[in-house]
Amino acid sequence: MQTLISVLPVYSFIVIGLILKKSFKEKIDEKSYVILSFYFLQPILIFWGLTKSPIDYAFVMSPIIYLYAVLSVVFFLIIFSKKIFTDSKDRTIFIAVSLVGNTGNIGVPLGIALFGEQSVPYTSIINIANMFFIYIFSIYFFAKDSFTLKKSIYSILKLPGLWVAFFAIAINYFNVPIHKDISRTLEMGAYASMVIQLIIFGVYLSEVKIRTMNWKLSLNISLVKHFILPFVGVFFVLQSDLSSYVASVVLMQLMIPLAVNNVNLAALYNCKPYDVTASILVSTIIFSLLLYFYIFIIKYFLGDF
């Protein structure tokens, strides 16, 4: 019950976005929200997360194990995407979206509900690792359909979040103190980023038509996200030397549903944002149905947390 209560605020902000778009229609410009989130609020979230806790072994290894699992599956998707989809944009979405979980908006509060507040440093750094994957791999696959390889790489290098992440790591590594008032401001911006992301999802969700949904795309993405990736994740965490507690946090982060950030990318690169929104909706529903099964798997392999 505590787990369900912890994610209720997440769904409430999605509903707010849906109601806003339904009520004000053309007065709501969703791309303006996307730009605000992607180029301003998310860099604040990245900096806040990477400077929240000191760097130690578990802090470093937890995102590395997470990325091992994700990157091992992305090569599988690249190989088989052409056999599954004939449409190039569907292939792009399948590769770029399937592995990007909602590690911030759902992962952080769910981590607190299941593992306590001591999980926040690990869920935060895994969220940053997830953003690195988005900025490097997802954006490349989205951009390559619209730009040349050179322009795709250039579009990645222009993103402020990437440079903010490097700066934040340097600040943390050299123990540069951050004034408490600045830290409070960063925290406000970080939580604002999570809220605006959920509202963006609700805005795009309002335009999704169930009868015209791309079910083949949505179900294949959910198959990867909720079955293949968790299976691979179990293998990697069992092979690691992380404590059972940290390993449990990493595995749960691999199991959470698709990120709302996927809608941002699809909108920025004009790559079927409504199909991406529908895929996120299907993924979120499947995750809700599998949540207690996931908890059982974690306890079976890693013990009580």
Automatic annotation (TrEMBL):
Chain segments annotated as transmembrane: 6-21, 33-51, 57-80, 92-116, 122-143, 155-176, 188-205, 217-238, 244-268, 280-302
Entry annotated with the keyword Magnesium: no
Subcellular location: Membrane
Stored InterPro entries: Mem_transp_PIN-like
Membrane topology note: Multi-pass membrane protein
Pfam families, per database record: Mem_trans (PF03547)
Keywords per UniProt: Cell membrane, Membrane, Transmembrane, Transmembrane helix, Transport
Major location category of this protein: membrane
Keyword Amino-acid biosynthesis: no
Domain of life: Bacteria
Identification of the protein by name: Permease
Natural source organism: Malaciobacter canalis
